[in-house]
Design the sequence.
C-alpha cells in the first residue's frame, strides 16, 4: 500500500510537470485550455471527495459550482464588491447552501441519493434559468477578475491567469491530501466501505456525510467563482445535471478515490474534446465508448491502469530480491 | 380562459396523454430496476430510437401503422444487443458501475442518432391515423392524442394481465420480490430478466413512435425525457406496475397543470414532488417490495 501511495505522489508530480511544460509552450488558445483544465480539476477533485472517498455519488454537484459562479457575478457585477471579498463570500455562501442541502439529502442512500441530488440540482438550474434578474437563459456577462496588481500580477493576462489557476490546483491538492490522511479522512473512507459498520461503531454517520457534502460543495463553489472569472460570462448550463455527469466521467476515467485521478481525467477529457472536435463531429460517441470500456475493464481508470503496470514492474524487480515482500505489496 | 370548462378539459386530456407516454417509458425501466436493482440510464435513448426508426419506416412506406409495428421491434433488437454485449457482462459488477456504463451509452446513442438521422426535427405529416380532430365544449382537440391515451391504457391492461395471470408474470413478481429464493425454486431469473429487458425496450420504442406524429423526433429527445421518467420510477416505487401507472399520472398532471398555472416553475414542482416523496416515503407510493 505504501508503494501505491508513493506512486500516486509520483503521478501527481508528473501531472504537475506536464501542466507546467505545456504552460511554457502554450499560445493564447493553449492558455485558455489550461485554465479550463485547472478549474475542472478543482471541481473534479471536490466531487472525488464525495463520490470516490465517501461513496456519495452526487449528480447535483454542478449546481453548487454554478451557485458559486452566480454568487460571484452578483456580488461583483451587481453589488460592486471587490473580487477578493466576493470570492470568499461566494465560496462561503455555497458551502452554507451545501450544508443545508447536505443535511437533507444524506437521509437517503444509494440510487436514491443520486436521484435526490439530481432533483435538487435541477431545481437550482430551473430557478436560475427562469429568473430574469440573473439573466435567465441569456446568462450574465461583465464579470471582473481578481485584481492582484498590488503584488505586480496582472490576472487579465491569459498566461498569468492560467499559472495562477494551476497554482491553486496544487495548493488544493496538497490540502486535500493532508485532510484525507487525517483521522477525518479515514472516517470518510470508512463510510464508503461500510456505513452500517461505522454506525455500529458509534459514529454519527449522517453528520459526517453532511460535513463532507458542505466542504466539497464549498470547493465546488470556489471553482465556480474561478470559472466566472475565466470566461467572464456565465450561463445556466453551468448548473445543469449533464455538467455534473461530465465531471463525474472525468473522475471515473482518471480514477475515483485517488485525488490525482480526477485531475488527470479533467486534463484528458478537456484535451480530447478540443482535439477530437476538430477531427470529428461525433466526439461524444468516442467518449461514450471510452467510458464504457474503462468501466467494463474493471480497473480504476487511468490511475488504476498505471498502478497495475507499476505493480507488475515492482513485482518483477522484487522477484530478484525477495519474492515474499513484493507479493504482499502487489496484493495491497 | 381560466374559468372555461372546455379549456380545463383539454388540459386534462393533455395531462393524460403525457402521463401515458411517461407510463410506456417508465414501466420497462421500473420492472428492470425492481428485478435487477440497476437503472438503465440509456432507456430514454431507446425512446428516441423508437421515434427515429418510426420516422424512417413512415418515410419509406407512408404507412404509420407499419411504423408502430416495426419501430418497437427494431428497438427491441437494439435492446437485445445492449443486453448481450454490455449488461449481461456487468451483472456482477455492482449497481454503480452498471449505471455508469449506461451513462456512457447515452453519449454513444446520442451521436449515433445524430450521425444517422441528422440534428433536424423530423416530423411525419402524411399517413397518420386519426389525423382529424373533434370538438369538445367548444374546443378543437386532435383525435390522435386520444389515440395515445388509448394505447397507454391498453398497454397497462395487457401488462396487468401478463403479470397477474401468466407464468412469466408470476416469475417476474417472484424475481422482484426475492431473486435468490425465486432462483432456488427453479425460476430462471436470468432468462426472465432478459425477456423483461426486451419488453421494456420495445415499450420505450413504442412510446417514441407513438409520440412521433404529435411531437416530431430529434436526436436529443431521449435525454430530455429521461429525467421525468426517472422521477416517475422513484415516485411510483421501484419495480411496481401500479406504481409506474400512478407515478405517471401524478407527474404528467403536475407537469401539464403546472405549465398552465405556474408557467415558470412547472418542472420545479416535479422536482419538489420527488424530494418530498424521497424524504417522506422513500420507497415510493406503491413499492413492489413491502
Sequence:
Amino acid at each position: 500500500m505504501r508503494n501505491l501511495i508513493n506512486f500516486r505522489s509520483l503521478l501527481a508530480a508528473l501531472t504537475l510537470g506536464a501542466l507546467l511544460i505545456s504552460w511554457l509552450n502554450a499560445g493564447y488558445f493553449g492558455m485558455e485550455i489550461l485554465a479550463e483544465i485547472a478549474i475542472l480539476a478543482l471541481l473534479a477533485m471536490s466531487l472525488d471527495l464525495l463520490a470516490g472517498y465517501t461513496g456519495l455519488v452526487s449528480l447535483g454537484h454542478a449546481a453548487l459550482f454554478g451557485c458559486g459562479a452566480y454568487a460571484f457575478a452578483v456580488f461583483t457585477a451587481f453589488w460592486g464588491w471587490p473580487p477578493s471579498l466576493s470570492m470568499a463570500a461566494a465560496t462561503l455562501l455555497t458551502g452554507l447552501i451545501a450544508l443545508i442541502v447536505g443535511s437533507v439529502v444524506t437521509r437517503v442512500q444509494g440510487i436514491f441519493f443520486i436521484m435526490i441530488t439530481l432533483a435538487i440540482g435541477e431545481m437550482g438550474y430551473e430557478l436560475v434559468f427562469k429568473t430574469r434578474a440573473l439573466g435567465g437563459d441569456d446568462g450574465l456577462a461583465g464579470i471582473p477578475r481578481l485584481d492582484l496588481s498590488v503584488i505586480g500580477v496582472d490576472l487579465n493576462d491569459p498566461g498569468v491567469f492560467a499559472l495562477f489557476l494551476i497554482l491553486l490546483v496544487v495548493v488544493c491538492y496538497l490540502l486535500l491530501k493532508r485532510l484525507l490522511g487525517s483521522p477525518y479522512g479515514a472516517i470518510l473512507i470508512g463510510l464508503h466501505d461500510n456505513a452500517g459498520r461505522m454506525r455500529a461503531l458509534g459514529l454519527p454517520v449522517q453528520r459526517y456525510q453532511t460535513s463532507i457534502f458542505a466542504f466539497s460543495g464549498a470547493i465546488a463553489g470556489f471553482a465556480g467563482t474561478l470559472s466566472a472569472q475565466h470566461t467572464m460570462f456565465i450561463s445556466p448550463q453551468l448548473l445543469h445535471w449533464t455538467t455534473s455527469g461530465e465531471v463525474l466521467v472525468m473522475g471515473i476515467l482518471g480514477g475515483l478515490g485517488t485525488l490525482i485521478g480526477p485531475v488527470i481525467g479533467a486534463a484528458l477529457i478537456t484535451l480530447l474534446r478540443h482535439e477530437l472536435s476538430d477531427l470529428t463531429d461525433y466526439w461524444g460517441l468516442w467518449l461514450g465508448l471510452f467510458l464504457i470500456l474503462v468501466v467494463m475493464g474493471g480497473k480504476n481508470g487511468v490511475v488504476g491502469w498505471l498502478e497495475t503496470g507499476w505493480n507488475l514492474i515492482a513485482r518483477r524487480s522484487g522477484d530478484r530480491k525477495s519474492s515474499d515482500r513484493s507479493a504482499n505489496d502487489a496484493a495491497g | 380562459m381560466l374559468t372555461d370548462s372546455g379549456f380545463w378539459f383539454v388540459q386534462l386530456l393533455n395531462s393524460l396523454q403525457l402521463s401515458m407516454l411517461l407510463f410506456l417509458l417508465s414501466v420497462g425501466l421500473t420492472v428492470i430496476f425492481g428485478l435487477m436493482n440497476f437503472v438503465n440510464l440509456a432507456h430514454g435513448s431507446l425512446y428516441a430510437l423508437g421515434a427515429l426508426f418510426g420516422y424512417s419506416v413512415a418515410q419509406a412506406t407512408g404507412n404509420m401503422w407499419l411504423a408502430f409495428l416495426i419501430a418497437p421491434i427494431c428497438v427491441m433488437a437494439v435492446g437485445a444487443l445492449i443486453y448481450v454485449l454490455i449488461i449481461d457482462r456487468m451483472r456482477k459488477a455492482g449497481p454503480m458501475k452498471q449505471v455508469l456504463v449506461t451513462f456512457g451509452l447515452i453519449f454513444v446513442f446520442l451521436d449515433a442518432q445524430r450521425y444517422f438521422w441528422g440534428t433536424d426535427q423530423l416530423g411525419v405529416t402524411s399517413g397518420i391515423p386519426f389525423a382529424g380532430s373533434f370538438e369538445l365544449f367548444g374546443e378543437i382537440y386532435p383525435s390522435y392524442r386520444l389515440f395515445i391515451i388509448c394505447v397507454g391504457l391498453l398497454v397497462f391492461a395487457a401488462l396487468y394481465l401478463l403479470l397477474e395471470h401468466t407464468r412469466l408474470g408470476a416469475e417476474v413478481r417472484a424475481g422482484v420480490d426475492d431473486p435468490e429464493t425465486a432462483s432456488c425454486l427453479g425460476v430462471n431469473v436470468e432468462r426472465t430478466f432478459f425477456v423483461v429487458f426486451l419488453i421494456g425496450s420495445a415499450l420505450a420504442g413504442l412510446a417514441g413512435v407513438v409520440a412521433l406524429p404529435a411531437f416530431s423526433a430529434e436526436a436529443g429527445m431521449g435525454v430530455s425525457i429521461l429525467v421525468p421518467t426517472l422521477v416517475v420510477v422513484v415516485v411510483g416505487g421501484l419495480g411496481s406496475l401500479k406504481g409506474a401507472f400512478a407515478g405517471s399520472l401524478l407527474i404528467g398532471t403536475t407537469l401539464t397543470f403546472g405549465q398552465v398555472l405556474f408557467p415558470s416553475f412547472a418542472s420545479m414542482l416535479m422536482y419538489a414532488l420527488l424530494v418530498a416523496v424521497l424524504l417522506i416515503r422513500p420507497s415510493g407510493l406503491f413499492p413492489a417490495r413491502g
In short: The radius of gyration of chain A is 20 Å.
